[in-house]
From TrEMBL:
GO terms for cellular component: plasma membrane. The gene is LOC102022610. Gene3D superfamilies: Rhodopsin 7-helix transmembrane proteins. It is found in: Cell membrane. Keywords: Cell membrane, G-protein coupled receptor, Glycoprotein, Membrane, Olfaction, Receptor, Sensory transduction, Transducer, Transmembrane, Transmembrane helix. One of its GO terms (molecular function) is G protein-coupled receptor activity. Belongs to the G-protein coupled receptor 1 family. Residues 42-294 form the G-protein coupled receptors family 1 profile domain. The lineage of its organism: Eukaryota, Metazoa, Chordata, Craniata, Vertebrata. It comes from the Eukaryota. It is a multi-pass membrane protein. The chain crosses the membrane at residues 28-53, 59-78, 98-124, 144-170, 203-229, 241-264, 276-296. This is Olfactory receptor.
Length: 317
């Protein structure tokens, strides 16, 4: 066992990935590659579709930013995982430098945090559209959307930097083997030598900022929306207003549900192998579902995608 004094080795860590399952790795590689390419294609298709719309309402601009975040989110984790799965031999793990691990964790948290703030901004957009429709064009302007987009990114970046500095100042013990396929927070905290609750405070603070505050804003927005829908006497208008919120609510529940289950719990409940399996789902499956949810539920996105696909077919013919 390494002592705490030399725990933060300059050469970094070993990512175990799925090296202990040599017979499953080829199938897992093909499955992840297919999911990754589908996710990239879906988000790129949404970006191209929105770019083809001559006049873009604010919700489409938010969807563009969400697609960009999801693209970067998967690119931070999945390509390295695929490279590790393609490595031959029963290696114990794939080495990653101390700095590389810190950068990967920081980017992962920053993008996830930006998405948390963006979902709150999208909830505010829905609130103004449903509760104050006559003032919507004057309140939710392209300038406001741009400022909110920048604020979401800067907020996620600030929290991720603070959390990364706090985690990588901890002493790490043992073989520096991360039972994970990327540098996730829970895997790193599991290796920390300290056994007090002090090392969990930065993660708790980050969860409060990234999860609790945006979720309160989302709940407040949808509370006001629900009150406004109850006052509507026209059932068709109530259904139309509710349908505009469905896709956002589904994505919000998926994102916040996965993040809360993974990170809002004490260190004593961490299970490296279980956390690795759950991380495989929320880093691959949920980014795949988001473009499907929005493309199926948003009429403007659906129409724009059909126009883009129609142009591609006509050029191919």
């Amino acid at each position: 066992m390494d002592s705490p004094s030399n725990a933060t080795l300059p050469h970094g860590f070993l990512l175990q990935g799925f090296f202990e399952f040599p017979h499953l790795r080829p199938a897992l590689f093909l499955l992840l590659l297919a999911v990754h390419l589908t996710t990239l294609s879906g988000n790129l298709l949404i970006l191209v579709a929105v770019a083809s719309v001559p006049s873009r309402p604010p919700m489409l601009l938010f969807l563009c930013q969400l697609s960009v975040i999801e693209l970067c989110y998967t690119l931070v984790v999945v390509p390295r995982s695929l490279a590790d799965l393609s490595m031959p031999g029963p290696a114990r793990g794939s080495p990653i430098s101390f700095l590389g691990c810190a950068v990967q964790m920081q980017m992962f948290v920053a993008l996830g945090g930006a998405e948390c703030f963006l979902l709150a901004a999208m909830a505010y957009d829905r609130y103004v559209a449903i509760c104050h429709p006559l003032r919507y064009a004057a309140v939710v302007t392209p300038g406001l959307c741009a400022r909110l987009a920048v604020a979401c990114c800067l907020g996620g970046l600030a929290v991720s930097l603070g959390l990364t500095v706090a985690v990588f100042h901890l002493p790490f013990c043992g073989s520096h083997l991360l039972v994970h396929f990327f540098c996730d927070i829970t895997a790193l905290l599991h290796l920390a030598c300290t056994r007090s609750y002090a090392e969990e405070l930065p993660l708790l603070g980050a969860c409060l900022v990234l999860l609790l505050l945006p979720s309160m804003l989302i709940l407040a927005s949808y509370g006001a929306i629900a009150a406004a829908l109850r006052r509507l006497h026209f059932a068709g208008g109530r259904r139309k207003a509710a349908s505009t919120c469905t896709s956002h609510l589904v994505v919000t529940f998926l994102h916040y549900g996965c993040a809360t289950f993974m990170y809002v719990r004490p260190k004593a409940t961490y299970s490296p192998r279980l956390d690795r399996t759950l991380a495989l789902v929320y880093t691959n499956v949920t980014p795949l579902l988001y473009p499907l949810i929005y493309s199926l539920r948003n009429r403007e996105i659906t129409a724009a995608i059909r126009r883009v696909l129609g142009r591609w077919r006509s050029r191919a013919v």
